[in-house]
Fold this protein.
Amino acid sequence: MDIHELLHERILVLDGAMGTVLQNQQLSADDFGGTHYEGCNEYLNLTRPDVVQSVYTAYAEAGADIILTNTFGGTRIVLAEYDLQEQVHSINVASARLARQALAAYHTTAKPRFVAGSLGPQTKTISVTGGITFEEVREAFRAQVLGLLEGGVDLLLIETTQDTLNLKATMLGARQAMHETGRIVPVMISGTIEAMGTMLGGQNIEALYTSVAHFQPLSIGLNCATGPEFMTDHLRSLAALSMLPVSCHPNAGLPDEDGLYHETPMSLALQLERF
């Protein structure tokens, strides 16, 4: 069933956190391919594909409708910090294929499963940090999405968006990749509202919606950096305004005083009805 049709029938469930689950695997530097690459979860798609696929499988077994690829930092902007910028294509293709393989045993007509390519924020942003141009961001995401499309994703999720200018560059890069490949997939957008009530770029939830609604994404919503309670009012405002499905990924946010994350096992992903 088409995901647009499915959204008219029920809420879809997105899988939980990838990073914190990988942390729990107690991986060594050798698993990452050496100390220089330690902490680069995306490189595990190549060095330990079995571990990455086991996470996908666990979330599929738990009943997630949508599985996110392990590509949150899968652009050359982030991977260059590990000297892996030339591996963008292979990392993204591998991650999407691993997710596709993991879902094969769980996908049915009655309960279809979907692979979403994860497009995370960058370590450099156009207006917040500077040091990068609109065209560089657009090209970085074009290259990433080319790999994800080749790997077989069903849709894309631009997540943890912190600035609408970066978001627009990401959308344009994704669209260019789709045009080049001839594969058009739906795009979900999820922003992050900070404690001051806006994204890091200064836009509130209404400005976020207004800036991207014309792209006609599959959904628009929030995943939070400050905890699920803080995002409630912003989600109500978004749901009252949006003519699109609204998403909510209520992770626990930042680590506690002991450095521990308390992620929910899975996140509510999309709902068509307003609050």
